[in-house]
């Protein structure tokens, strides 16, 4: 097994220590930082993603794998310019106002990041104003909102309306997700898309962030 394959395997198994060690060894041996990212760290998450979709891996395992990938990324990132890191686009993600649930949102963020998006996570209980400010500041291709409570779903429409009123919708797609939501609800509030889970969110962003 090549060192890149070994690194991918440690990521897949959620082995943080192993991922850090092999990443350091690859850096010391002079391997290209982008090759470490693409052929090792992201390759590991590429094994995880379809298994999660197929129900062969579960949330805690996916989170461990994503953290192992992030551990390696932290070591490699200082060696390359941000502009050199291939990116499919910028996604801002947050849980809407009044809602503190973040496990699903964090999972979506990790899957998007491992899928090649630059993800700016603006946290939980995110006000309408904060979403608008973040859209102005980071100029993302996609804004993703998460809600787990039926009582906070309404904040999604308020946020979409505010982004529209601020004239920010031209080059911006809005996606929503969370257990109580549906495609129908997403359509009613004027979102560009709905994703039922983290993998679907990645596929949707790939379609929308062009
Ligand atoms: Co809360 N809670 N909770 N809770 N909690 C629910 C959501 C609830 C269904 C439990 C129940 O009654 N059966 C219920 C909501 C009822 C309703 O509105 N219909 C509920 C309630 C009522 C509450 C409180 C009001 C309880 C109280 O205090 N009386 C309170 C509210 C606090 C607040 O937010 N203001 C509360 C608090 C909490 C805890 C803090 C204890 C904790 C949250 C911890 C945390 O997130 N850091 C918690 C938890 C853990 C849950 C349950 C048990 C699990 C949620 C979870 O993390 N699931 C939940 C019951 C349940 O869902 N079975 C429940 C795992 C996660 C991976 O799945 O979040 O669905 P999920 O995310 C999925 C998809 O939905 C999707 O992809 C993810 C991965 O596949 N997805 C997106 C999510 N966001 C997306 C965004 C996208 C795309 C896809 O694009 C942007």
From TrEMBL:
GO cellular component: cytosol
GO biological process: homocysteine metabolic process; tetrahydrofolate metabolic process
InterPro entries: Cbl-bd_cap, Cobalamin-bd, Cobalamin-bd_sf, Met_Synthase/Corrinoid, Meth_synthase_dom
Record keywords: Cobalt, Metal-binding
MF GO annotations: cobalamin binding; metal ion binding; methionine synthase activity
Residues in B12-binding N-terminal domain copies: 1-88
Domain B12-binding residue range list: 88-210
Matching Pfam families: B12-binding, B12-binding_2
Family of the protein in this entry: Belongs to the methylamine corrinoid protein family.
The protein, known as: Putative cobalamin binding protein
Organism: Desulfosporosinus youngiae DSM 17734
């Amino acid at each position: 097994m090549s060192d890149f394959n070994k690194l991918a395997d440690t990521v897949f198994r959620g082995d943080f220590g192993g991922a850090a060690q092999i990443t350091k060894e690859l850096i010391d041996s002079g391997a290209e930082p982008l090759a470490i990212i693409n052929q090792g760290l992201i390759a590991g998450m590429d094994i995880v993603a379809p298994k999660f979709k197929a129900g062969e891996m579960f949330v805690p395992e996916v989170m461990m794998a994503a953290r192992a990938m992030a551990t390696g990324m932290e070591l490699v990132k200082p060696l390359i310019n941000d502009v050199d890191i291939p990116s499919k686009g910028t996604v801002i993600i947050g849980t809407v106002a009044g809602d503190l649930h973040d496990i699903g949102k964090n999972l979506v963020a990790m899957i998007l990041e491992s899928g090649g998006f630059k993800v700016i996570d603006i946290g939980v209980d995110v006000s309408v104003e904060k979403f608008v400010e973040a859209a102005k500041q980071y100029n993302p291709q996609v804004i993703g909102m998460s809600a787990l409570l039926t009582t906070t779903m309404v904040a999604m429409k308020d946020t979409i309306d505010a982004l529209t009123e601020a004239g920010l919708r031209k080059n911006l797609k809005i996606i929503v997700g969370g257990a109580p939501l549906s495609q129908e609800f997403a359509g009613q509030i004027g979102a560009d898309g709905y994703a039922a889970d983290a993998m679907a969110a990645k596929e949707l962003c790939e379609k929308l962030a062009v």
